[in-house]
Amino acid sequence: MTASLRSLSAVLPPVFPIGLGCMGMSEFYGTSDDDQSLTTLTRALELGVTLFDTADTYGLGANEELLGRFIAAGGSERRARMVLATKFGIVRAPGAYERRIDNSPAYIRSACEASLKRLSVEQIDLYYCHRRDPAVPIEDVVGAMADLVRTGKVRAIGLSEVSAQTLRRAHAVHPVAALQSEYSLWTRDPEQELLPLCSELGVAFVAYSPLGRAFLTGALNMAHLEAQDFRAHNPRFQGDAGAANARLVAQLSTLAKKWNLTNAQLALAWLLNRQSHAIPIPGTRRPERLQENLTAATVRLDAEQMAQIEAVFALGAVQGARYPDAGRVGMETSV
Ligand SMILES: NC(=O)c1ccc[n+]([C@@H]2O[C@H](COP(=O)([O-])OP(=O)(O)OC[C@H]3O[C@@H](n4cnc5c(N)ncnc54)[C@H](OP(=O)(O)O)[C@@H]3O)[C@@H](O)[C@H]2O)c1
Fold it and tell me: What domains are there in the chain, each with its CATH number?
C-alpha cells in the first residue's frame, strides 16, 4: 500500500504512517492465538507496515517472544524491514494487573538484556520508558538509556505517558525520538501541551489506543467481554459513562457511513489528518482487519469533515476515566 512515510527520528528510517500495536496478541483484550498473530505480523509487513510496538510487560514477556519468533523465522532481511519498539519499567507478578514501576539504572540495563534475548535481536530500534518511577530523576533514567545507545543495544529512546515538563528535561539530556501517549477521538488531552511540545522539540508522537481499545469502532460487544479483559474493568466502558460514550460512537458511525468509511478508518484518518507528526499504532490480532485500518493512511478529510467529527467529540463530551485506579501508577498525564 502506498502512503507518504512519516519521520520517527533522525536516527531511524521513516516509517509507514500507521504502525502495528502488538499488545492484544498476548494480553488484555481476551483470548488470542499465536498462529493467527504470526499471520497478522506477516501480512502487516507485506502491506508496508514498518513500526511494530511491544513491551516487556505484555503477556509478561510472551509478546516480545512472539515477535522474536517472527523475526527469527524471517532472518536478517525481515529484521531489516522492521522498526522494532519495546518498553521497560512496569513490574507485575504473574497473573496480576497491579504493578510497581522500576526506573533504576540497574533495572533498565537488565530489562534491556532480557528484551533483546526475548526479541532475538542484537539491537532495539526504539526503547521506551513505559512508566515513570518518581524515585529516580528523569535525568538519571535518560542517562542510563543513553548508555544503551552508546553501547549499541538501542538505536533511539522514547518515553511514554510522561508530562510535558519531564519530556523537556529528558530531551535536554539526550534526544528523545518519540513520545508515546494515548491519543484518539475520545482522548484528546495531548492536544493541550504534549502535541505542540513534540512539534517544537522535533519529537515524534506515537498515538496508542487510537481506536479507543475498539470502542470507537462500534464493533465491541460489551456483553461478551471475557472476565480478564481490561475493558471489563475500565471506567469509560462501563455503566452510565459507557452508555454516554456509546451515543457518541453512534454519531461517529453515521458520519463514517455517509463518507463510505468504517469507524476504524474514520478514527485513524481523523488522527492522521489532524497531526502531521503523529503515528498511530492500532492493534489487531486479525489479518483481515489490517487492510481496512491501513487504508486510513490514504484518506483525506477536508476542514468541514474534521469539524463535524470534532463537534461529536467536543471537550467534555467523553465520560469516565481512561484507566482503573491500579493502572494509574507511574502515569504523569491526566487519566
Ligand atoms: N504506552 C502505553 O502505555 C500503551 C498502552 C496501551 C497500548 N499501547 C500500544 O498501543 C497499541 C494499540 O493500542 P490498543 O491495542 O490498546 O488499542 P486500539 O488500537 O485502540 O484498539 C485495539 C482493539 O481494536 C480492535 N480492532 C482493531 N481494528 C479493528 C477494526 N478495523 N474493526 C473493529 N475492531 C478493531 C482490536 O481487536 P482485534 O484484535 O480482535 O482485531 C482490539 O481489540 C497496543 O497494541 C500497544 O502496542 C501502549
Answer: 20-214+264-301 (3.20.20.100)
